[in-house]
Amino acid sequence: xxxxxxxxxxFLCSFFLLASCHKxxxxxxxxxxxxxxxxxxxSSSSDMGLSLYVSASVPSLEGLSMxxxxxxxxxxxxxxxxxxxxxxxxxxxTSDIIMPHGAPLPExxxxxxxxxxxxxxxxxxxxxxxxxxxxxxxxxxxxxxFDSSSxxxxx
Length: 155
Fold this sequence. Notes:
This protein is an alpha+beta fold. The protein has one domain: Sandwich (Immunoglobulin-like), CATH 2.60.40. The protein is 17% helix and 46% strand.
């Protein structure tokens, strides 16, 4: 009888321990990737970058980090995302994905790894495309402006 009681108590404690360690939902419902170019009168080459935000169900921003890799896997950005509220939704990400000076932003399939402090990760891919950089720069009036024909934001 004592062995059964000990087994039952160990089983009950294990059940409560597992129930208390349940991890909440962790998923991404929307990825927004917007290429941008910084207009510059100083040099003939302009700096390009990417603004990347995701709508994700995470318990909190604390302990969240992201790793973004370009299509060639040669460049990687690791960062702690900031949160932005827009139209009633919360987005996590950054606008600080900046190419080396004068280098074009690679088009194609990029990868995003979202890491949470409890060890969970999500691996996603997203596409980046734009066209007519010079046209976007020449059409830019008051900055910043989104040039819809080139899919570029000019800063």
